[in-house]
């Protein structure tokens, strides 16, 4: 679309902006703002998510035990 990096071709009625990759900061504010915000959001939602996970685990464990019990043969062993 143009010449060198940062000198994009000029087209009428189209506005383009560019920034050098050396000027960008990929993780700007990650540890100072992003991670504390993640912890705050997780703390606010813990009472919505944890009960559902516990209920799901209880149902899953009950269902696997019930399935193992229901597919077992009624073998009583040798009778003498």
TrEMBL record:
SUPFAM superfamilies named among the record's database cross-references: Ubiquinone-binding protein QP-C of cytochrome bc1 complex (Ubiquinol-cytochrome c reductase) (SSF81508)
Membrane topology: Single-pass membrane protein
Localization of this protein: Mitochondrion inner membrane
A GO cellular-component term linked to this record: respiratory chain complex III
UniProt xrefs under Gene3D superfamilies: Cytochrome b-c1 complex subunit 8
Chief location bin: mitochondrion
Any single GO BP term: mitochondrial electron transport, ubiquinol to cytochrome c
InterPro entries named among the record's database cross-references: Cyt_bc1_su8, Cyt_bc1_su8_sf
Keywords: Electron transport, Membrane, Mitochondrion, Mitochondrion inner membrane, Respiratory chain, Transmembrane, Transmembrane helix, Transport
PANTHER family named in the record: CYTOCHROME B-C1 COMPLEX SUBUNIT 8, UBIQUINOL-CYTOCHROME C REDUCTASE COMPLEX UBIQUINONE-BINDING PROTEIN QP-C
SUBUNIT field: Component of the ubiquinol-cytochrome c oxidoreductase (cytochrome b-c1 complex, complex III, CIII), a multisubunit enzyme composed of 11 subunits. The complex is composed of 3 respiratory subunits cytochrome b, cytochrome c1 and Rieske protein UQCRFS1, 2 core protein subunits UQCRC1/QCR1 and UQCRC2/QCR2, and 6 low-molecular weight protein subunits UQCRH/QCR6, UQCRB/QCR7, UQCRQ/QCR8, UQCR10/QCR9, UQCR11/QCR10 and subunit 9, the cleavage product of Rieske protein UQCRFS1.
Family: Belongs to the UQCRQ/QCR8 family.
Role description: Component of the ubiquinol-cytochrome c oxidoreductase, a multisubunit transmembrane complex that is part of the mitochondrial electron transport chain which drives oxidative phosphorylation. The complex plays an important role in the uptake of multiple carbon sources present in different host niches.
Protein name: Cytochrome b-c1 complex subunit 8
Organism lineage: Eukaryota, Metazoa, Chordata, Cephalochordata, Leptocardii
């Amino acid at each position: 679309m143009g010449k060198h990096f940062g000198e994009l071709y000029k087209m009428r009625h189209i506005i383009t902006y560019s920034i050098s990759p050396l000027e960008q900061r990929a993780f700007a504010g990650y540890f100072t703002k992003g991670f504390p915000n993640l912890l705050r959001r997780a703390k606010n939602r813990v009472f919505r998510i944890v009960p559902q996970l516990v209920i799901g685990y209880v149902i899953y464990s009950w269902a696997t035990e019930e399935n193992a019990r229901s597919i077992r043969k009624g073998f009583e062993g040798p009778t003498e």
